[in-house]
Design a protein that fits this description.
mainly alpha; Helix Hairpins; two-stranded antiparallel sheet; 2 strands; about 5% strand; rod-shaped
């Protein structure tokens, strides 16, 4: 327990401190609920995109098999690709002071200047399928980063809320209880002292004329 002087001013100061702590705890508790809700929403979208990635992976495997059947693996490996991969255009928003990223739309790839020796719909479909796969994977990576930042902030908020609820507020309550008990004891002693002092003097004698 903290060391405090048993005075009325100390009680008033501790009461103000307790009020501020309770307001802080209410704020942290509300922030904790908002973070949890956002984490659930982000996790739901992350799962949807993961399911989409799985479906696109299966589609890409199918068109890859068609392209290999048409060209063979060696020829498909040298098939002209785009000069630059699709780059996610990350948009930034703030949620409770945290930076949330969104992959949004990806920039289109730059067409290659090389011409395929044996162009085919199968090879073009294969390249397009894997470009879609990369865009989805980039979006999932961005969402995973958002979840990590939310989880880190939630743990930090949880620690602060528990510190107020389980340590600081009980400490202030205990200090206030101790001071009030000391003040009550001092008041009782003062009352008893006053009574004994009054009883010891007794009634004033009266003068005879």
């Amino acid at each position: 327990m903290r060391e405090v002087s048993p005075t009325r001013n100390a009680v008033i100061e501790l009461a103000d401190e307790r009020r501020v702590m309770r307001q802080g705890y209410e704020f942290l508790d509300e922030k904790r609920m908002l973070l949890a809700g956002e984490m659930v929403r982000q996790m739901r979208e992350y799962q949807q995109r993961s399911d989409q990635l799985l479906a696109e992976t299966k589609d890409a495997a199918g068109v890859l098999a068609n392209a290999i059947e048409r060209h063979g693996l060696d020829q498909l490996q040298v098939y002209p690709a785009a000069r630059a991969p699709a780059t996610p255009d990350a948009a930034r928003t703030l949620f409770l002071g945290l930076v949330m990223l969104s992959a949004g739309q990806t920039a289109g790839t730059v067409p290659t200047e090389r011409v395929a020796v044996d162009p085919s719909p199968e090879a073009k479909a294969c390249r397009a399928a894997f470009e879609r796969l990369l865009r989805t994977a980039a979006d999932i990576g961005v969402r995973a980063g958002n979840l990590m930042r939310l989880a880190r902030e939630y743990r930090r908020t949880e620690r602060r809320a528990k510190a107020l609820e389980r340590v600081l507020l009980p400490e202030v309550e205990e200090a206030m209880k101790f001071i009030n008990e000391q003040l009550d004891s001092m008041e009782r002693e003062e009352i008893i002292r006053t009574r004994w002092s009054t009883a010891g003097r007794g009634p004033k004698p009266t003068r005879r004329t």
